[in-house]
Amino acid sequence: METSGYRRMLCYRMQALNACRQKHPKRYLLYDVNPPEGFNLRRDVYIRMASLVKTLRRHGDWVLVLPPWGRLYHWQSPDIHQTRIPWGEFFSLTSLQGNVPVIEYEEFIAESGGPFIEQVLVLQNYAEGWTDGKWEEKVDERPCVERLMYSKDKQGYYRGWFWGYEETRCVNVTCLSAQGHASILAPLLQNNITSTSVMLDRAETVLHDLYAGKDYWNTRRSMVFAKHLRLLGDEFRAMYLNSTDEQDQTVYNEDWTLIKNKLSSARGGPYLGVHLRRKDFIWGHREDVPSLKGAVKKIRSLMKKNNLDRVFVATDADDEELAELKRMLPEMTRFEPTWEDLELLKDGGVAIIDQWICAHARYFIGTSVSTFSFRIHEEREILGFDPKTTYNRFCGDSENVCEQPTHWKIVY
Ligand SMILES: C[C@@H]1O[C@H](OP(=O)(O)OP(=O)(O)OC[C@H]2O[C@@H](n3cnc4c(=O)[nH]c(N)nc43)[C@H](O)[C@@H]2O)[C@@H](O)[C@H](O)[C@@H]1O
User: Fold this and answer.
1) Is residue 374 in contact with ligand 1, taking CB distance under 6 Å?
2) Of the candidates 134, 208, 269, 335, which lies 20 to 30 Å from 354 by C-alpha distance?
3) What are the start-end ranges of the H helices in 227-370?
4) Which residue's C-alpha comes closest to atom 14 of ligand 1?
5) Spatial contact of 142 and 176, defined as CB atoms under 8 Å apart
6) From the CA atom positions of the chain, what is the Rg in Å?
């Protein structure tokens, strides 16, 4: 093409792009989750929000702002700074961006020109519940049912918990009753709300657009753990569990879009992987959680059955229970970071390393309804394990019907 023709074409393209930008200015979707919810439920809510942003992007230039990690109820290691943690410390940002446009919160502040969120929408359930017991998808602006966690300052801005960013303020806060899947919010965000930045608080109120469908799995696959955490997990596997990707048929590709493992293609390292959730799971005296004695009995029988002489245990057990577990199962291996490691990795990083090691075991058993165990199931599904080696859980000592976890088959 001659130079002037090329210039003209470029010019048309730039004009079209600018016109498009003016017509569809960049908009930011922020979100947060009910404070007591843990790390792995929050990972699930991310999938719902990513799906909503995909829907919104059909008609506008929406970007998802990643809520910094911190102040989580379960992250109790003392003397460690655990707020304002960017997603990049736990996940690969380029992998997330390969699925949907995302930015860190500090990038949002820099791009949008200040620490202001224009509109917060607090999601809530309908006070009247389901009408006539009938499930109906709906969304309406309604008065707030619960006391707001935001209060006005002298300048008339709202202050609240914005992930530890004290200087962040919000211009307007209203409540929205919502019942249904995440994308039912799209028309309202697109047409009724003109703010450039909108935050959905209590985002767990809305459901997955399609749980375990192709889009769910794409987003889940894009949630690749940060490389330094994977490497630490791999080093630990090699050093203490005689486990390497080549031997175990779990070779990984940095680009998640290229990973398409066949079911049952992974062999896994020669050890049993265990996730034994304790703390608040036993305080409630739940029927589906075993005693330590019951758990050890099951572990021993699985090691024998699968011909494995090593066991890796991931657990949040307190010191007293840990000492008892060590006494009953002296051969167990655990990832035990030094204080310096912990300061660097934080509780979230250690949890990820535990999950990564469990995900590579030849056989895995987890804890009933723990989202921590569910995320391990998914990681193993991505790696291509036989479902029989993955979807297993401990039974309570006197649980009569011990239903095993559902196999959610990966969809590409
Ligand atoms: C009862 C509910 O339980 C839900 O927990 P559940 O689904 O197990 O799973 P999570 O939502 O991840 O919350 C449990 C948290 O406890 C720690 N934790 C639990 N097990 C382990 C482990 O094996 N290793 C390490 N390193 N850390 C562990 C970790 O910080 C994890 O994020 C909560 O999300 C809800 O808020 C609620 O409390």
Assistant:
1) no
2) 208
3) 227-241, 245-248, 280-283, 292-305, 319-328, 339-359
4) 38
5) yes
6) 24
Residue with tokens 């398409």: 260
Residue keyed to tokens 């767990």: 204
Ligand 1 atom with the smallest distance to the CA of 372 is: 9
Q: Is the CB of 177 under 6 A from ligand 1?
A: no
Instruction: Name the pTM for this structure.
Output: 0.94
> Would you name the residues annotated as active-site residues?
37
How many Cα neighbours within 13 Å face the side chain of 360? Answer: 28
| Binding site membership of 315 for ligand 1 (Cβ less than 6 Å) | yes
Q: Supply the ipTM of this predicted assembly.
A: 0.97
Please answer whether residues 268 and 389 qualify as being in contact, where contact means their C-beta atoms are separated by less than 8 angstroms: yes
Residue 286, ligand 1, Cβ within 6 A: no
Q: Which pLDDT score is estimated for 17?
A: 47
Expressed in angstroms and rounded, the spacing between residue 68 Cα and the centre of ligand 1 is 18
Which residues are bridge partners to 374 per DSSP?
Answer: none
Using one digit for the tens of pLDDT, what is the confidence trace for 122-147? 999 998 877 777 789 999 999 999 98
Give the other-Cβ count within 10 Å of 144's Cβ.
14
Q: Return the percentage of the chain with pLDDT > 70, whole number.
A: 94
Q: What is the whole-number distance in angstroms between the Cα of residue 351 and the centre of ligand 1?
A: 9
Greatest Cα pair distance, the chain, in angstroms, is: 81
407 CA distance to ligand 1 middle (Å)? 21
Q: Output the six-digit token pair for 364.
A: 């895995």
The encoded tokens of residue 263 equal: 């079911």
375 within ligand 1 shell (Cβ under 6 A): no
If one counts every other C-beta atom within 10 angstroms of the C-beta of residue 73, the result is 11
Ligand 1 centre to CA of 283 (Å) is: 14
Q: Is the CB of 36 under 6 A from ligand 1?
A: yes
Ligand 1 atom at minimal distance to the Cα of residue 353: 26
